[in-house]
Write a structure and sequence with these properties.
Blueprint (H helix, E strand, L loop, with lengths): L12 E4 L3 H13 L5 E4 L5 H7 L4 E5 L7 H11 L5 E5 L4 H9 L4 E4 L4 H30 L16 H12 L7 E4 L6 H12 L5 E5 L5 H9 E2 L11 E2 L1 H4 L4 E5 L6 H13 L1 E2 L8 E2 L3 E6 L3 H6 L5 H7 L2 E4 L10 H15 L10 H7 L6 H14 L9 H15 L22 H15 L4 H8 L3 H9 L3
Parallel strand pairs: 1-2, 1-3, 3-4, 4-5, 6-13, 6-14, 7-10, 10-13
Antiparallel strand pairs: 8-9, 11-12
Helix pairs in contact: 5-6, 8-10, 10-12, 13-15, 15-16, 17-18, 18-19
Length: 473
């Protein structure tokens, strides 16, 4: 069952002006920029009743109107609806008036005639502020309620851990926002699945369009995303729409965003800030209401600090951020994932769903899974493909772990990294107490400070490990 598309913004922008032609021009300018949820009011005396009937996100208010002056409406809004940002619009370019309006709580102040870009940017800023307020409220509701409103949106993500449930709750709280979402996490954690879930939650009528931007130059990026007009370059015999247009009313998911070139970063920033773009060879801007979701396994924070990623784009992209933890940090999901992949593999290979020995979960619990959920899936499919009988053997899993260990040990520079290969010492040997302390430290490092996993790596109970950690020696 498809969900009805959500309007943008979720609650309307109220335009108040006694001049009908100005209301119409503002309406056209905002709708062309993707702001389509609007209410128009030509009689200032109706504002109070309209606000009582319907929640409003933003108010654009003409200051000089007959019947009821805009200053009185501003004072009323400031007192009764302080959470609503009010953008004052007036024909008087008077500093004292502007200061007075700001003192009475105006969010912004614009002088007629208002340029389209100024109007759109001001309204978008006000909407962004209101969206953040609303999302914080929704997130608190989700955390207190501890239940999901649309669990079906996450059907493709197999998880039961509290860490993942919290991410699902956060994703629901930002579902109505058109602000960009940055999804981070190691390779194989399921970033694209989370992007797909966000699209489902949004209720957008358009489709989700995925594109990997790694390794494409600026021209290819522009042509892929923005398209081109006929004659834009040699061989452009006809116009072609880009993926932004294909994703109109939907979601554009850009994977490997950390590999995007500097010139392309500027164009992506313009798309996000202005909600418009230029096809190659055209000087006419096209508006879009496409939601941008980006994914990466790189540390964008560090990249922008090192000058390898634009700081302004980084902060625009992380309006909302979802960091998916690696599998080793959510071991509660292992049994569920194992059961799911066994059933999935058996169905694809037309075999009965096999069982597995009890030792398998212990074995997998000691493994750090550098390839995360994707790696686990590959391991299970390999085991099912060699199945003899009704129970999967441990050997395919042992073999994978041995191969992964050998590959890790063979990595360039691995000799300098402690714990990558077998134990070896140079110089004087440590005494037993020192060796014990070093071994525990290495186990904790490999287990990412998960004491249960570290204890399994050492072949001891968690209680024994805890005693060693508490011991002053």
């Amino acid at each position: 069952m498809s969900m009805a598309p959500l309007p943008y913004p979720l609650f309307p922008v109220l335009l108040v002006d006694d001049e009908a032609h100005i209301l119409k021009s503002f309406e056209l300018a905002l709708k062309s920029a993707g702001v389509r949820n609007l209410r128009l009011c030509a009689d200032p005396r109706q504002v109070t009743a309209m606000l009582a009937r319907e929640r409003v996100f933003v108010v654009l208010l003409d200051l000089n109107m007959p019947g009821l002056p805009g200053r009185e409406i501003l004072a009323h809004l400031s007192a009764e609806y302080p959470e609503i940002p009010v953008i004052v619009i007036t024909g008087n370019n008077d500093v004292d008036t502007a200061v007075a309006c700001m003192k009475h709580g105006a969010f912004d102040y614009m002088v007629k005639p208002v340029e389209r870009s100024r109007l759109v940017s001001g309204v978008r800023r006000a909407i962004e502020m209101r969206e953040l307020q609303y999302e914080n409220f929704r997130l608190k509701q989700r955390i207190l309620g501890k239940e999901l409103e649309q669990p079906e949106a996450f059907a493709d993500i197999i998880a039961c851990s509290q860490a993942m449930l919290s991410l699902f709750q956060y994703a629901e709280s930002i579902a109505a926002s058109l602000q960009p979402v940055l999804i981070t996490g190691e390779t194989g954690v399921g970033k694209e699945l989370m992007a797909q879930a966000l699209h489902r939650l949004s209720g957008c009528s358009g489709e989700a369009v995925f594109v990997n931007v790694a390794g494409i130059d600026d021209n290819a990026f522009s042509d892929t995303l923005f398209g081109h007009v006929k004659g834009a370059f040699t061989g452009a015999d006809s116009s072609r729409a880009g993926l932004v247009e294909k994703a109109m009313g939907g979601t554009l998911v850009l994977d490997e965003i950390g590999d995007l070139g500097r010139e392309s970063q500027v164009k992506l920033l313009r798309l996000i800030q202005q909600g418009e773009y230029y096809p190659l060879g055209s000087d006419i801007a096209k508006a879009t209401d496409t939601r941008i979701v980006v994914c990466t396994n790189q540390d964008l924070q560090r990249m922008q600090e090192e000058g390898r990623f634009r700081k302004d784009l980084f902060y625009r992209l992380r309006a909302h951020r979802i960091h998916i933890p690696p599998l080793r940090q959510r071991q509660e999901d292992l049994p569920l994932l194992l059961d799911h992949f066994l059933a999935e593999a058996a169905m694809e290979m037309k075999r009965p769903v096999p069982s597995y020995p009890e030792q398998l979960l212990d074995l997998l619990g000691q493994y750090p899974f550098p390839g995360n959920v994707r790696e686990l899936r590959g391991m299970v499919y390999d085991a099912v493909s060699t199945l003899r009988g009704h129970t999967v053997a441990l050997e395919p899993f042992h073999r994978h772990l041995r191969q992964e260990g050998a590959a890790t040990a063979a990595e360039p520079g691995s000799e300098e990294r402690p714990g990558r290969a077998g134990l070896h010492f140079t110089g004087a040997l440590p005494n037993l107490k020192e060796a014990n302390r070093l071994l525990i430290a290495e186990a904790l490092r490999r287990a990412n400070n998960n004491q249960s996993m570290a204890a399994r790596l050492l072949g001891i109970s968690r209680q024994t490990l805890a005693r060693h950690l508490q011991s002053p020696d």
